[in-house]
Amino acid sequence: MILVTGGTGLVGAHLLYHLISGGEKVRVLKRASSNIDRTRFVFDFYGSDALDLFKKIEWIEGDLLDYESLEVALVDVKTVYHTAALVSFNPSLRDRMMEVNEEGTANLVNACLEKGVDKFCYVSSIATLGNSKNGELIDEFSYWQGGKNHSAYSLSKFRAEMQVWRATKEGLNAIVVNPSVILGPGNWNQGSLKIINTVYKGLYFYTSGTTGFVDVRDVVKGMVKLVGSNITNERFVLNGANLSFRSLFTQIAQMLKVKPPKIRAGKHLVGMAWKYEWLKNILVGTEPLITKDSARASLRTTNFSGKMISETIDFEYTSIADTIKDTTRYFLETQQ
């Protein structure tokens, strides 16, 4: 039996399809408020027959912050994929992110140690790795550096990852993957997929930054292959390509047949944008479209190397052009 957390999220939903289509028996930890229609939406991307596979999911209610529910969920489980996380650049959610991401991960690895789980796979983030100082590629050997320039999200993921590494010292066999920005069919109003919706509705500005991107199907494929190997207690950066934001937005716009952004937003304009969103959040409580942390990231040039996984196991990345084509096709198909 395999246990998956975060099954209604982007990585978790695609992982479920991959596992079940491969004949695995899967149990999914979900909160009472979780919307499993998000998972069904992802399954539908793979074709009408995929919905029959969706029915094979065993859902179990629980919470990462409820230790007893984790003990129940882990009965007869030998492999765990931990994809659940609270993802936000909103600084007001700092304490909640620390609680869910760090404390929740600590609870899960402790329960896995108690129940004798054979293999544990944790979906971390490139946000837990070091920053590029002189243009060098960020890879598995780039380490976290202290300072004030880390978002609350990156700090919460770093601390969560430290809980996994701590558990490996206590006997847990773990794999940690650090994906770059993940693209693929999913909830168009959440996380990185907001990019697709924003470009479709009309995006006039682009920033000068560059970062890494990876297909969600590659993240899932890499996780499953690594868990199925003899490799333990290693991390792998998953990055299909490094692209400027302008290049990404332009490719998305071309596939959606809309106008690409033409106006470069510099530091001053981006600064005005996040301050406006911050003020609007204070006054009316709306979720900010851009925050100080995300504004800083949009102007930064950081390149990542994801080649170690291909040098370790049989693995090839999907081209980002194909990722964009497949993702925008499903986006257009699902617009009402």
Topology:
Blueprint: E1 2-5, H1 10-21, E2 26-30, H2 37-45, H3 50-54, E3 58-61, H4 67-73, E4 79-82, H5 94-115, E5 119-123, H6 152-169, E6 174-179, E7 181-183, H7 194-202, E8 205-206, E9 210-215, H8 216-227, E10 234-238, E11 241-244, H9 245-256, E12 263-264, H10 267-284, H11 292-299, H12 308-312, H13 320-333
Parallel strand pairs: 1-2, 1-4, 2-3, 4-5, 5-6, 6-10, 7-9, 8-12
Antiparallel strand pairs: 9-11
Helix pairs in contact: 1-2, 1-8, 5-6, 7-9, 9-13
Folded structure, characterized:
The protein has 336 residues and is α/β, with parallel strands linked by helices. It has a domain of 218 residues: Rossmann fold (3-Layer(aba) Sandwich). The chain has a seven-stranded parallel beta sheet with strand order 3-2-1-4-5-6-10, sandwiched between helices. Strand 5, helix 6 and strand 6 form a beta-alpha-beta unit. Helix 7 packs across helix 9 and helix 9 crosses helix 13. The longest helix is centred in the first third of the chain and has 22 residues. The chain is globular, with a radius of gyration of 19 Å. About 3% of the residues have low confidence.
